């Protein structure tokens, strides 16, 4: 498995769809402890465990549970309207994990940042990778981790130089600015990639 490092919304209340662990269209969504057993290098030289289990080792993946982490998964492949679907799913998770409703302006901004990053990663997969396969979102105390998998071969990166007035091309720049860290994970012999991003809660 390899990872590539990049170069240096509203609070409407929980939506009725997906609240019981399924999306509007009946696609199952799951919640549970961290199921990821794969790892990729992060910015600090340590490991960044993926939320997605290694498909051939389900028992081993479920055995490697990280205490205190809550994980939700939404299948997006084949769905229509995936960006609002993903945002609503992420909003429901934020309500379940106590990030919403926000008690302060800083908490509201942090929740809106999560929703914006979800939108940008899913949109990027739509524009450059024939659509996203899955969205994984996890909460581990003070950090939210978002993963979007797709079958694309391209390499997401902020457009350089970034020009604020130019239309389009701002998605990964926004992700880079809002997140503690982000990157790309690929598995040898498996088509596609997973783009991940981590955001911190307000102090």
From TrEMBL:
Histidine kinase/HSP90-like ATPase domain residues: 85-196
Comp. bias (Low complexity): 15-26
Residue ranges of the region described as Disordered: 1-51
A GO molecular-function descriptor: protein serine/threonine kinase activity
Coiled coil: none
Any Pfam family hit: HATPase_c_2
Keyword set, alphabetical order: ATP-binding, Kinase, Nucleotide-binding, Serine/threonine-protein kinase, Transferase
InterPro entries per the UniProt record, alphabetical: Anti-sigma-factor_SerPK, HATPase_C_sf, HATPase_dom
Membrane-traversing stretches: none
PANTHER family to which the protein is assigned, alphabetical: ANTI-SIGMA-F FACTOR RSBW, ANTI-SIGMA-F FACTOR RSBW-RELATED
Entry protein name: ATP-binding protein
């Amino acid at each position: 498995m390899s990872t590539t490092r990049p170069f240096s919304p509203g609070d409407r209340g929980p939506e009725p769809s997906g609240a019981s662990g399924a999306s509007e269209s009946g696609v199952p969504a799951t919640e549970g402890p961290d199921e990821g057993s794969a790892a990729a290098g992060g910015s600090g030289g340590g490991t960044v465990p993926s939320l997605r289990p290694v498909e051939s080792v389900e028992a081993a993946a479920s055995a490697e549970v990280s205490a205190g982490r809550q994980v939700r998964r939404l299948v997006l492949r084949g769905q229509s309207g995936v960006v609002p679907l993903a945002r609503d799913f992420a909003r429901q998770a934020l309500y379940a994990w106590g990030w919403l409703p926000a008690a302060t302006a800083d908490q509201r901004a942090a929740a809106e940042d999560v929703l914006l990053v979800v939108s940008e990663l899913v949109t990027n997969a739509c524009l450059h990778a024939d659509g996203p396969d899955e969205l994984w979102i996890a909460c581990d105390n003070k950090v939210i981790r978002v993963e979007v998998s797709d079958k694309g071969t391209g390499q997401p990166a902020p457009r350089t130089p970034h020009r604020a007035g130019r239309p389009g091309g701002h998605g990964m720049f926004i992700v880079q600015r809002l997140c503690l860290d982000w990157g790309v994970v690929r598995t040898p012999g498996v088509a596609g990639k997973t783009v991940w991003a981590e955001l911190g809660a307000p102090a």
